[in-house]
Amino acid sequence: MNQPLSPDPTLRHRSHEVTLTLRRPDGSACADTDVFVEQTRHAFAFGNIGFDFIGLANADTAESPGAVFGGADPEAAERLVDLWLDVFNTATLPFYWSGFEPVRGEPLTERTLTAARWFRDRGVSLKGHPLAWHTLAPTWLLDASTAEVEQVLRARIRREVAAFGGLVDTWDAINELVIMPVFDNEEQQNAITRLCRQLGRIPMARLAFEEARAADPGVRLVLNDFNMSTAYECLIEGVLEAGIRVDAIGLQSHMHQGYWGEERTLEVLERFARYGLPLHLSETTLLSGDLMPAEIEDLNDHQVPSWPSTPEGEERQADELVRHYRTLLSHPSVEAITYWGLTDLGSWLGAPAGLVRADGTPKPAYEALHRLVKQEWWMEPTHLRTDSEGRVKVRGWAGNYRLSVQSATATFDLGPDSSRADVTVAP
């Protein structure tokens, strides 16, 4: 195991400096020249689910089938687009098997591909969630033998990863594996638990990761779980010791029972950072209404007829969201945060966890996150001037940048490995 990186509340590790040497197409230096520099994208993955826009991307009408899983109707989605795109650069698309392939052999591939292309056309990176999971497994698998379940699952993983190659570059390869072989719910019988019970957790992880990797060797694969106990640590250790290549560790943080707080958050990050892998806060929520009672063990068990957002709750949510994101960004191992839902409309469990109210108006938490992502953690458009050799220094958050010299433009990246770069500016 690697020595974990230490948190830094100043976030100095998130910004970098590069010395650019600007040249014209003929190779001459742009000496003593005014330059305009602006940031165009964060390298850090500020994510949210993209479920709301599947119908919009497919030009649905009121009579259309709707999203693969949840999501706003096209009219509501149209009002949310700018809010989503103005903060987030990474979308999680739903591949819950029962919704993605409700009838065996009839997956909703084209519909989801259309949504994936819609996001990519807008500069958004994509993650698929999940390839293997016991919950929301298709009921048509229940009567299959365990050997057939394995065969069909392997084929399903290869099919999805191959079909979305070049669009979806990150996948939750397997979800909630800690509980998978012991999951026992009469109302949610599934064939994947049966398979995992027979194979064991480590072989099940190998199945998911190796099938996905075979379909697309360049894809990034995440081991994702809600269980933050030592059981998850033991699983990770077993998976890594078995030689299974994991690209990132996914940590769910649905805080329906209250904000974790800085101390607990950092304790969790430190424990999972010791494996030397990037950490993805894969499912994050904070409530703007009443909190779920502390005695609830399975969040799905808390069902209430109405769960409204309140003015007091919205102020609390905004404060906690800023504290949580600052804490997460302070740890160098964290490279992605996915907030689980933009709006309260159709939110998981009906909880007031969105950053936008059901009527489409932003909550204080949305405004607070926007200020962080696009103001405090974003380089303001800047006028600079090159020296006599065409050099200019630029410092900002890791990400993509564009510069303009009169009518000529160029792009460059800022990151930990980009201390010097030659840039050719051209009309």
Automatic annotation (TrEMBL):
Catalysed transformations (reactions): Endohydrolysis of (1->4)-beta-D-xylosidic linkages in xylans
Domain GH10 intervals: 61-372
Keyword tags: Carbohydrate metabolism, Glycosidase, Hydrolase, Polysaccharide degradation, Signal, Xylan degradation
GO BP, one annotated term: xylan catabolic process
UniProt-listed Enzyme Commission number(s): 3.2.1.8
Name of one Pfam family that matches: Glyco_hydro_10
Family classification: Belongs to the glycosyl hydrolase 10 (cellulase F) family.
Protein name: Beta-xylanase
Provenance organism: Nocardioides turkmenicus
